[in-house]
Design goal:
Length: 336
């Protein structure tokens, strides 16, 4: 059952999200299949997803006015997704409907441990243009921009340039894993990939904290970012700032059911907290809690936590002293 948008106080921040909107077909399996194997599943569900839509819902649940710029197909999936977003308080006037491409689709295979495997058909998401983004900015002003890599490069770069011209923070959730010219985003506030995305962007396989620090330094140099935040799953996250310092933040302990969308919850909370505090460390600590909570429910958008849920979780974690095991300082590939 889809959770309704809870009653909220007036929005603290107005944030433009430039990104994807997908329908997720979630298949629950006893385990991941082997190559060539036909495996009988446990059940399946159709759940709203897409990194842009996930992050817009996450921001709305944290108290923001979230405006989503993206593209849907003129089909049943598009109708359902648009309805879901409207019911959850997302401003959808910047969502366009394609007459030539279907709504994006993601197939999510989910095993009993909460691990996932995702294949995405972009569909209408691939039609998002720089002109679409510029029109969305005309509906501002906005306090910040949040974007991902599940839409064309043209749209991502246009969003960055418009945000820079407006002198507002811009955060990049660097997923899904693919190559991207970070040099086009010189001076961006935050770049935040996970381990697989780090590998695609830098060629560095993150097996240790030193690997993560090395990758963060590379990403920062390429984008001249103010901060790089690497999402490390059960190991938490790593923050590197422009002064060259790095800090590892262990993850909170939870019983993971589905990790889909956890990174989106993390990045939305990171941005929201930064707008409230202007402090990167505090923002990463808060984002860790949001990402952990999101793994305790099935689906992407339905799992996005509210601010009150994060506050209660933080109090419980403080009482219990819950810390995930620390990431290894060095790994098999670390010879320094």
């Amino acid at each position: 059952m889809v959770r309704a948008m809870p009653a909220q106080e007036p929005a603290r921040h107005s944030i433009l999200v430039v990104g994807s909107v997908n329908m997720d077909l979630v298949l629950r399996l006893p385990r991941m299949p082997h190559v060539g194997e036909s495996l009988i599943g446990l059940d399946h569900r159709r759940i709203p997803g897409g990194k842009g839509a996930n992050q817009a819902v996450a921001l709305a649940r944290l108290g923001a006015r979230a405006v989503l710029a993206g593209r849907l197909g003129a089909d049943k999936d598009g109708d359902e997704l648009l309805d879901f977003l409207v019911r959850h308080g997302i401003a959808t006037e910047c969502l366009c409907r394609s007459q030539t491409a279907a709504t994006g689709l993601a197939v999510v295979a989910l095993d009993g441990g909460g691990n996932n495997w995702i294949a995405v058909y972009p569909g209408a998401n691939n039609e998002l243009t720089g002109s679409d983004v510029k029109r969305a900015f005309a509906g501002g002003p906005f306090d910040a921009v949040l974007m991902q890599l599940e839409v064309p490069d043209e749209a991502v770069i246009a969003a960055f340039r418009c945000a820079r011209d407006a002198a507002i923070p811009v955060f990049l959730d660097a997923g899904p894993a693919r190559s991207f010219a970070l040099e086009e985003l010189q001076g961006i506030d935050v770049v935040s990939p996970n381990e697989t995305e780090v590998l695609a962007l830098t060629g560095i396989e993150v097996k240790s904290l030193r690997d993560a620090e090395s990758a963060a330094a590379t990403l920062m140099a390429r984008a001249n970012a103010k901060a790089v935040v690497i999402k490390l799953g059960a190991w938490g996250s790593l923050l590197r700032t422009r002064d060259g310092s790095s800090k590892h933040f262990p993850a909170a302990k939870v019983q993971a059911i589905d990790t889909t969308g956890a990174g989106d919850a993390f990045t939305a909370a990171l941005l929201m907290r930064f707008l409230d505090t202007a402090d990167f460390s505090s923002s990463v600590e808060y984002a860790n809690l949001a990402g952990a909570l999101a793994t305790t429910r099935l689906g992407a958008q339905p799992s996005m936590p509210t601010a009150s849920e994060i506050d209660r979780f933080r109090c419980a974690s403080d009482r219990n002293g819950d810390d995930a095991k620390n990431m290894p300082v060095s790994g098999p590939g670390d010879h320094s």
